Amino acid sequence: MKYFACIIALIILSVSLSVADETEKVIKSKISDVTVFTQGAQITRTGSTTIPKGSSYIIFEGVSPYINQQSIKVSGKGSFSILDVQYRYVYPEPIQQDTKELDKIQAQISKIQDSLNQHNLYLTNVRTKKQAIETERNLLLNHPLMQGKAKPDSLDLLKGTMNFIEVKLASLADRYLAISLEEAKMVKIQNAMNKRIYALRLASSNRPTPPPNQPKHQVLVSVTSQNNTSGKLEITYKVNQAGWSPWYDITAKDAGDDIELIYKAAVYQNTGEDWSNVHLKISNANPNQSNTKPNLPVWYIDYIKYTKALKATSANRGYFKERKVEMNEDAEVAESADYALDNAPTAGMAYDFSQKMQNFSSIEFDISLPYNIKSNSKTHFVTVQKHNLKAEFQHYLVPKLDKDAFVVARITEWENLDLLVGNANIYFGNTFIGRTVIDPSIVSDTLEVSMGRYRSLAVNRTKLKAETKKQIVGSNKVYTATYEIELRNNSANPISLTLEDQVPKTTNTAIEIELVKPDGGKLNERTGLITWDLKLDPYKKRTIIFTYTVKYPKEEEITGL
C-alpha cells in the first residue's frame, strides 16, 4: 500500500513540475513596422523579456482580431530556442464590480420601503375612519324625521330632535375636517417616500457597469532555455481590414512643358490595433490573390452529336474599386508674425524620405518617417513619390458640343513609374482645377491625362445661311451646308489645338454625303469625324470654313439634318 502511495505521489510531483516548466509569461510588445498592401497589411511586433530556465510560453497580447493565423512568423535573439508558435483567444475573468455603494443604496431603499409600508397602514386606518364618518352622516341625513316622514308626539320633542341633529352634524363635520387634514399630510409624506425610492433606484440603475468581456487575441511562442536568460522576440502576421488605394496630384507649371506628379497612397485601417510611430511601407502587392500558376486543361474535340451543344463562355473581368475618400481639410491660420518665416527653409515632404524598392513580384515604397494611424477607418494620405515628367499639352475643342477647350497632357517616359489606376487632383500652379482619372493599363508609349478645361480660347461656330441651301439637280435634291468656326487665342502662350467637327453618316446607299470643302481638315470616312491640327500664336485668330453636301432622291425627305 505504501508502495502505491509513493508511486502516486511521484506522478503528481512530475505533473506539477511539468506544469511549472510550461509557464506562461506576457511580454510587453509594440508594433514597430507595418507593410500596407492594396488589401490587408503585415504587422511586425517586437518585445524583450526574461526567459526562465526550461520550457515556457511567451505571450504577445493585443494582436488584431482580424489576424491571418497561417501568416504568423516568429524570430528572436538570445540564448534560447523557439519551439513553436500558435494563435489563441481567451476570455478574461469577469470584472468584479464594487457593490459597497450599491448595497448602501439598496439598504436605504429597504429602510424607506419599510417606513412606507407602515405609513400606508396608518393611512388606510385614517381613510377607514373618514369613511365611517361619511356613513354616519349619511344615516343621519336619511333618517325619516329629516325627510319629514315621521310624526313627532310633541313640539318639544321636535325641537329637541332638531337641536340634536344640528349638534351631531357639526361634530361630524369637525371630525371629518380634522381627519381629512391628517389624510392630506400623510399622502404628502407617502409621495415623498415614493419619490425618494424612485430616485435611489434610478441612481442604482445608472451606476457604471463593467464592459462585457471581450476575448483577448494572443500569439503564443513556445521557447526553451537551459538557463535563465534575456531575449528579444519578433512576430509578423497579416491582418485584414486595412489597405490603400492610389491617389495622385498633377501640377502643371506656369511655364515649360514639365508637369509635377505626386504619387500618394490613401491608407486606411480598422484592424483593432493602433499604429503608433511605426515604420511604414507601401506595397502594390495583394496577398489575397492566388499565387498558383494556372494550368491549361486538355482540349478535346470530337464529331458533332445530334444533341445541341451549349456554348459555355467565361470571362474574367477586373474592376477598379475606387475608395471614396472624403478629405476633411481643417486649417488653422497662425496670427503670429509670418514675415519671420519668409527666409526659413521649405518644409520637407514625405516623398523626400521615401525609397522605392523592386522585389521579384511587387514594388514597395519604404518611408523612413514614423507614422501614426489609428484603427478608425479614416483615410491618411501618404506621399510616396514625386516625379517631374516631360509632357506635351494638347488642346481639344469640339465647338458643336462645348465652347470650352479641354487640355490633355501627353506624358512620355512614364512606363517605369509603376502607377496604378487611381483618381488624380489637377492643379495649375497652386490653383485646384478639378479631378481626373489616371489609367496606366493602356498599352501605349504616351500616357494621356485630361487636365480639365481651358478657357483662354474663344470660339464661335455658326452656320452660314447664305451658303446653306437645297437645290434640285436632275432627279435628286442636293443639300449644301457651310459652317464657320472662329477661333481666338486670348493667352500669352502659343497653343497646339485639335479641332473636331463632323459630317453626317448614313447606311442608305441612295444617299450620298461628301465633304466638298474641308479647309485643311482630315475626314474619317467611317465615323464622319473631321479633325484639324492647328497652332495658334498668342492673341491670334483663325477661321475655319467647311462645306458638305447631301444628295438624295427628290421624292424623299431627309431627317436629322
Largest sheet: 10 strands, mixed
Total separate domains:
4
Q: From N to C, what is the helix and strand string?
A: HEEEEEEHHEEEEEEEEEEEEEEEEEEEE
Number of helices: 3
Residue-averaged pLDDT, rounded? 81
What's the count of strands? 26
Describe this structure in words.
The chain is α+β, with helices and mostly antiparallel strands. Residues 3-21 and 307-339 have low confidence and may be disordered. The protein contains 3 helices and 26 strands. The protein folds into 4 domains: 2-30 and 40-94 and 213-233, no CATH class; 100-205; 242-288 and 349-454, no CATH class; 457-553, Immunoglobulin-like. The radius of gyration is 47 Å and the shape is flat. It has helices at 2-21, 100-141, 155-205; strands at residues 23-27, 29-36, 41-51, 54-61, 73-78, 81-90, 216-225, 229-239, 242-252, 258-269, 275-283, 354-358, 363-373, 380-397, 405-411, 422-428, 431-438, 447-454, 457-463, 469-473, 476-489, 495-502, 512-517, 522-523, 529-536, 541-553. The strands form 4 sheets. Strands 9, 10, 14, 15, 16, 17, 18, 22, 24 and 25 form a 10-stranded mixed beta sheet that branches. Helix 2 runs antiparallel to helix 3 (155-205).
Chain-wise SSE layout:
Layout: H1 2-21, E1 23-27, E2 29-36, E3 41-51, E4 54-61, E5 73-78, E6 81-90, H2 100-141, H3 155-205, E7 216-225, E8 229-239, E9 242-252, E10 258-269, E11 275-283, E12 354-358, E13 363-373, E14 380-397, E15 405-411, E16 422-428, E17 431-438, E18 447-454, E19 457-463, E20 469-473, E21 476-489, E22 495-502, E23 512-517, E24 522-523, E25 529-536, E26 541-553
Parallel strand pairs: 1-4, 2-11, 9-16, 14-22
Antiparallel strand pairs: 2-3, 3-8, 4-7, 5-8, 6-7, 9-10, 10-14, 11-13, 12-13, 14-15, 15-18, 16-17, 19-21, 20-21, 21-26, 22-25, 23-26, 24-25
